Amino acid sequence: MAVLKVAKLGNPVLRQIAKQVDLKELADLQGELQNFIDDMIDTMREEDGVGLAAPQVNRSLQVVVLEYENNERYPGESSIPVTVLVNPVLSDYSEEKALGWESCLSLVDFRGLVPRSTSVTLKAYDRKGDKIEKHATGFEAVVLQHEIDHLNGKVFLDRMEDLTQLAYQEEFEEFWLKKDPVL
Fold first, then answer.
1. What does pTM read for this prediction?
2. SS3 state of residue 18
3. Is-contact 57 6, C-beta < 8 A?
4. Where are the extended beta strands (E) located within 8-150?
5. Which of 32, 46, 147, 170 is catalytic?
6. What is the dihedral of CA 155, 159, 164, 169, to 10 degrees?
7. Which of 22, 54, 111, 181 would you label with 165, given CA atoms 20 to 30 Å apart?
8. Is the CB of residue 107 less than 8 Å from the CB of residue 8?
9. Arithmetic mean of pLDDT, 19-32
10. What is the pLDDT of residues 57-80, one digit of tens each?
């Protein structure tokens, strides 16, 4: 497998609406799309990410990968097994929102305080083309919103309500890490 180049803010691919995947492409288990998904997972792990959307590795496709297990950037959060989402759609966003510090592989070294719905409903396909439908809450709901935003040409900066709560990672750790955000 290969580690792919991560697109950084300013790359036009991050502001495009990603194209839907033709589910027939998933049928070839040795095909290019399956190899690309494996490369996305390798890239996410190499970059120490929790999620990665295809536009972040320069492909305008509706593919997202997730995985979380004891990442020091998000201490104490619930695990997310390796997950592949194709053509994901979120709905039923809760009215209740929570503020949380987010970072992004495409905005390396930045953290921002972002309001997100505390629960969402996900409809998608897995890498075999099987339907996925689930209700997600908490950290998983936030990660889904963050990654699926990338498929719609959005980054977490677009969701921030107060840009004075944007920090470099080092300053975040020194000045903000111990503070509780209040909505």
1. 0.93
2. coil
3. yes
4. 51-53, 63-68, 80-91, 97-102, 110-117, 119-125, 131-137
5. 147
6. -40
7. 54
8. yes
9. 95
10. 999 999 999 999 877 777 788 889
Residue with tokens 């935003």, as numbered in its chain: 149
Locate the domains of the chain by residue range: 12-176
Which phi and psi (to 5°) does residue 20 adopt? -65, 150
Tell me if 64 sits within 8 A of 55, measured CB to CB. Answer: no
End-to-end alpha carbon distance in the chain: 42
Q: What is the pLDDT of residue 183?
A: 52
3-state class (DSSP) for residue 135 = strand
Distance CA 26, CA 122 (A): 19
Amino acid at 183: L
Distance of CA 79 to the CA centre of its chain: 15
Taking the CB of residue 80, how many other CB atoms lie within 10 A of it?
17
Give the CATH architecture of domain 12-176: Alpha-Beta Complex (3.90)
Mark whether 147 is an active-site residue. yes
Provide Rg for the chain, Cα atoms. Answer: 16
**Category of 77 on φ-ψ map: left (φ > 0), alpha (ψ -120 to 50) or beta:** beta
* CA–CA dist 171, 63 (Å, integer): 32
Distance between CA 173 and CA 178 in Å, rounded? 8
The answer to whether residues 65 and 37 touch, using CB atoms and an 8 Å cutoff, is: yes
